[in-house]
Structure formats: C-alpha cells, structure tokens
Amino acid sequence: MYDIVREYDLPEINRILNIPSVHKYFNFHPPLPMEATRKWYDEVINNRKSGIGDCVVAREGNKVIGWNYVFENNEPERNIVQFLKNYQGRKGYLAAIVVNPESAGKGTGQSLLHKGDLILKKAGLKGIWLGTNSDNLHAKHLYERDGYKLIGKLERYKVRSDGKVVDQMIYFKQF
Q1: Where do the domains of the chain lie, and which CATH numbers do they carry?
Q2: Which of 35, 104, 112, 165 could be a cystine partner for 68, CB 3.0 to 4.6 Å?
C-alpha cells in the first residue's frame, strides 16, 4: 500500500535511516536525532502545500517499508547545473528513495520511483534528476532500468558516514 507521508510515520522513518546499511549513503553520522527527521518532514509539508513536491511511503500493513521524496528544483547546486543545461523545462529532483533492507527485492523501490514520477508529471514538470553514490550499485541499476540516463559525475563528491569518499553520479529522465 502507498500513501503520502504522515507525522505518525516519523519514528519508523527515523529507525530505518539509522540502519547502518541505509545511513551510509547519507550525509549524517548516526544516530540521526528525531528532531532532524521532524525538520525534514516540515520541509515535505511546505512543498506539499506549495504544490511542488511530496513524499510517498510504502507500507506493509501499518509498517513503513520505504519512501521517496520528490520536489521541483530548477536551481540545483552550481556544480550540477552543467549537467542539466541541455534539458529544457521545469525539472524535479528525486531527493531520496529509501527501502528498508528487510523489505528489499520486492519491487518497492521501483514502485516508489514511479510514484515520484507521477507526482512531478501531475505538476507539469518535464523531467527529473537525481544524484547517487557511485558505489550504490543497486540504486544505479534501478535508475538505469527505469529510463534514467547517466549525464554526469562529480568526483570525490562526499564522505559517507562510514568514512569512504565516493563520487556522485548524476542521472536524468525526460518525461
């Protein structure tokens, strides 16, 4: 079952973000405090109210097993602009797609990807971009299988929470 994120989902989202195989792909050192998750939720709600994005959660029963977060972003970081200059029109950004490792391999990630596309298409956007760590092979395969094209690479882009320095791969999908 899929639904928009609700405040009562935050404890489970926070728990999943603090799983080592999940948080290593993000820019925080665990444990992620609940206040940081609440701040993110406030951003989601502001984008929802503005009509420029949302977050969809996947559930098994009442349990959150994954989520995405998409929003309109026509002014990416300066180092990303160079890769998007050939794509005209309003663009969205896939800020996150997360699946609980216990629920991986069931098509949840692909369904969340499609739900994010639908949110942005309904808002009239022409495409979506994202960045993923170069060593996140599962995510790269998911994006490429879904029609995303690799359009750029930022070398030594970030230090993961486990200390590993990784490149950022930039993908784009035209609607």
Answers
A1: 2-174 (3.40.630.30)
A2: 112
